[in-house]
């Protein structure tokens, strides 16, 4: 077993108790197991500050992208038109999925270190009155920027557009009142802020909006409506469910509750993220995103101004001291990333900053 903690934005470092929950081979049609699924669905709605019957939760096998594609290919057809807001690789992935599904779409591209301008969104909507859906990412994990989904939700409601949000790397780690923010479909996964292990993702949907999509899906296994219908009956998954992952997730939800729910977790993430950025800035390593738009989940750092700096060397140096860092994903700047979601505490931030400081001292001639 590698003895390092993951400072990556999912899969992430989970607790021993979450891992222990997987030591059972559960029967999928057993009532106990179906109850676990139903409890998870209700708990997810509570985290989003909504409830049945107006909102509903659908769990979907696969990684987060499978659920994003399930929503896109089940709710949008070539007769629709989407406005997709893009300021990172995950927004780009949504555009690629729309293209693959032959859904006409308008792109609103922003520079990766900037958020979206409300006036520009109004302009797009006025110029293209056939837009039916607005799609965007909450925390763009590419950079760690936190987009203002509440403001866009307000505009979506004003224009009567369906609003789809990829909240993969934020849901559970920051308050997202789904109804207040006019979100029709929110997507997230087991292995991000709820701190479970990979294996499934989920969609929280406005029930009326999901009901409208019956028969629309163009794939069988990613058919969100059919998946929901099957699960809604008694909690049995349509196809083989990731049983061990589901048990781990149920435990992870209990631990989120024990930490004080979304707010308790948010405070830990925020404090650790602030400490991380402060300590690295003191070492001459600066964040790419302005602190006003920085999410508390993952941070992109610019390479320090030293020609001897080498990310691969620093990665090995820090890994030997117990932490796995994450490479950057930008083409126009040299960067690396540090995620602080998962079982990461103040002492971990102190230790990783110490290790990075020692590495930087070792390359100073
Ligand atoms: C993690 C993530 C996804 C899903 O990625 P998978 O590798 O498919 O789990 C989608 N969007 C965002 C913003 C993410 O952070």
Hetero groups in this structure are: pyridoxal-5'-phosphate
CATH topology of the largest domain: Aspartate Aminotransferase, domain 2
Task: State the shape.
Answer: globular
Provide the CATH architecture of the largest domain.
3-Layer(aba) Sandwich
Along the chain, the helix and strand elements come as EHHEHEHEHEEEHEEEHHHHEHEEEH
Describe the largest sheet.
7 strands, mixed
CATH class of the largest domain: Alpha Beta
* Helix residue percentage: 40-55%
- Radius of gyration over alpha carbons? 21 Å
Integer tally of domains = 2
**What is the distance, rounded to the nearest whole angstrom, between the alpha carbons of the first and last residues?**
36 Å
Instruction: Provide the residue-averaged pLDDT.
Output: 97
CATH 4th-level superfamily of the largest domain = Type I PLP-dependent aspartate aminotransferase-like (Major domain)
Task: Please indicate the percent range of residues in DSSP E strands (runs of 2 or more).
Answer: 15-25%
């Amino acid at each position: 077993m590698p003895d390092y903690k993951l400072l990556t934005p999912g899969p992430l470092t989970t607790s021993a108790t979450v891992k222990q929950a997987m030591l059972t081979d559960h029967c999928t049609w057993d009532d106990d197991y179906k109850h676990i699924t139903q409890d998870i669905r209700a708990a997810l709605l509570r985290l989003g500050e909504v409830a049945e019957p107006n909102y509903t939760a659908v769990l979907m096998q696969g990684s987060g992208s499978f659920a994003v594609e399930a929503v896109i290919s089940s709710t949008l057809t070539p007769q629709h038109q989407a406005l997709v807001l893009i300021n990172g690789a995950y927004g780009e992935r949504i555009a690629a999925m729309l293209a693959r599904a032959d859904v006409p779409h308008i792109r609103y591209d922003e520079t990766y270190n900037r958020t979206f301008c409300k006036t520009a969104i109004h302009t797009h909507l006025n110029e293209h009155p056939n837009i039916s859906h607005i799609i965007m990412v909450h925390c763009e994990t590419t950079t760690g920027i936190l987009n203002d989904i509440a403001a866009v939700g307000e505009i979506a409601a004003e224009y009567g557009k369906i609003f789809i949000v990829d909240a993969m790397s934020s849901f559970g780690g920051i308050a997202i009142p789904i109804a207040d923010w006019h979100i029709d479909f929110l997507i997230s996964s087991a292995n991000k802020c709820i701190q479970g292990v990979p294996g499934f993702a989920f969609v929280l949907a406005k029930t009326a909006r999901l009901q409208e999509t019956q028969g629309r899906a163009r794939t069988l296994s990613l058919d969100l409506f059919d998946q929901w219908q099957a699960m809604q009956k008694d909690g049995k998954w349509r196809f083989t469910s990731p049983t061990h992952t589901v048990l781990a997730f149920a435990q992870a939800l209990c631990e989120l509750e024990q930490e004080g729910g979304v707010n308790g977790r948010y405070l830990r993430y925020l404090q650790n993220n602030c400490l991380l950025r402060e300590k690295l800035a003191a070492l001459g390593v600066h964040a790419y995103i302005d602190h006003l738009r920085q999410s508390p989940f993952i941070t992109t750092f610019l390479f320090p101004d030293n020609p001897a700096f080498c990310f691969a060397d620093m990665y090995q140096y820090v890994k030997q001291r117990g932490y796995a860092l994450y490479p950057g994903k930008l083409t126009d700047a040299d960067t690396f990333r540090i995620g602080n979601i998962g079982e990461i505490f103040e002492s971990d931030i102190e230790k990783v900053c110490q290790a990075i400081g020692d590495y930087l001292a070792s390359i100073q001639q």
